[in-house]
Amino acid sequence: MNKLKLGLPKGSLENNTFELFKKSGIRISRESDRTYKPFCDDEELSIVLFRAQEIPKYVESGVIDAGITGYDWICETEAKVMQICELVYSKAGFRKVKWVLAVSNNSNIKSVKQLQNKTIATEVVNIVKKYLEKNKVKAKVEFSWGSTEVKVPEFVDAIVELTETGNSLKANNLKIIDEVFFSTTRFIANINSYKNPWKKEKINSLSILLQGALCAESMVGLKMNLNKNKLNKILSVLPAMKKPTVSNLALKNWVALEVALEEKIAKEIIPKLKKLGAEGIIEYPLNKVIP
To answer: Are 28 and 20 in contact (CB under 8 A)?
Structure first.
């Protein structure tokens, strides 16, 4: 049987990645936190868990055919890989993450220009060096193995750290003085693997399913019954990806209407639909929405 070797991120993205695959129709599970080769109910996939930082280079070298990692790690490792699609999700939600330049709350440093000949700690050394070069600043950039926030101001003058909410920085008495780099999760593939017809088809199919599951996160389905004479008014308040599905009911002059729309819009228009004559309104979750 053909197999696609797939690397998934272990750590902060792990749970949300497993959930995304579940909504895509692929169930992944593992016996314990020490298991790096989880069970998958898709027999055409062979899954291994790596740190997100390692995945770009493993994909580039062909150790694995494809993987999910961050755009930041693709840029940091300068890995030559195919970026199949962007998947905007993170540890805390469905949004981009950013690497920020931060200093102690008590520091007089207010901009990157003031870091001339200073020391910066970070996990993304190459990204920071390019950032400093762009700003024409010469500073020492040292690699941090973790716990980067605690190094300011005793050991370094500033840090560049990944954040979604900024809460961890605030908790460590740090303030953000600039945004260095924005990143999203990416589905990537090995260049040679993508030339293999079967692997290419499998990778593209996975991409469609994953994007469909992610798209469905913010959407719901609505069903309702209504008299035909109220159809035009109800259609006028229904934003939809395409025209809603309308089908005849056994009851004369009555139809059923079904539509997919943003969840935040649904809560606003359901009362309006009721006032316009819609009955039996049902809201239901969606697993996948394929544009």
So the answer is: no
How many other CB atoms are there within 10 angstroms of residue 270's CB atom?
15
Q: How many Å apart are CA 124 and CA 134, to the nearest integer?
A: 16
Length of the chain: 291
Structure token pair of residue 32: 């314990």
The arrangement of strands across the sheet holding 140-143 comes to 140-143, 119-122, 158-163, 97-104, 174-183
Which residues share a beta bridge with 285? 220
**Which sequence spans correspond to the domains of the chain?**
4-94+185-216, 97-182, 219-285
CATH superfamily of 4-94+185-216: Periplasmic binding protein-like II (3.40.190.10)
pLDDT exceeds 70 at position 242: no
* Strands 97-104, 174-183: pairing kind: antiparallel
Domain pair 4-94+185-216 / 97-182, same fold: yes
Domain 97-182 has CATH 3.40.190.10: yes
Average pLDDT, the chain: 92
The distance between the two most distant Cα atoms of the chain, rounded to a whole number of Å, is 81
**pTM listed for this prediction:** 0.86
Q: Tokens in use for 212?
A: 């469909």
Each residue of 101-110: pLDDT tens digit? 999 999 999 9
Fold (CATH) for 219-285: Alpha-Beta Plaits (3.30.70)
Cα separation of 65 and 204, whole Å? 13
Q: 181-227 pLDDT, tens per residue?
A: 999 999 999 999 999 999 999 999 999 999 999 989 889 999 999 99
pLDDT digits (tens, 9 = 90+) for 19-78: 999 999 999 998 777 788 999 999 999 999 999 999 999 999 999 999 999 999 999 999
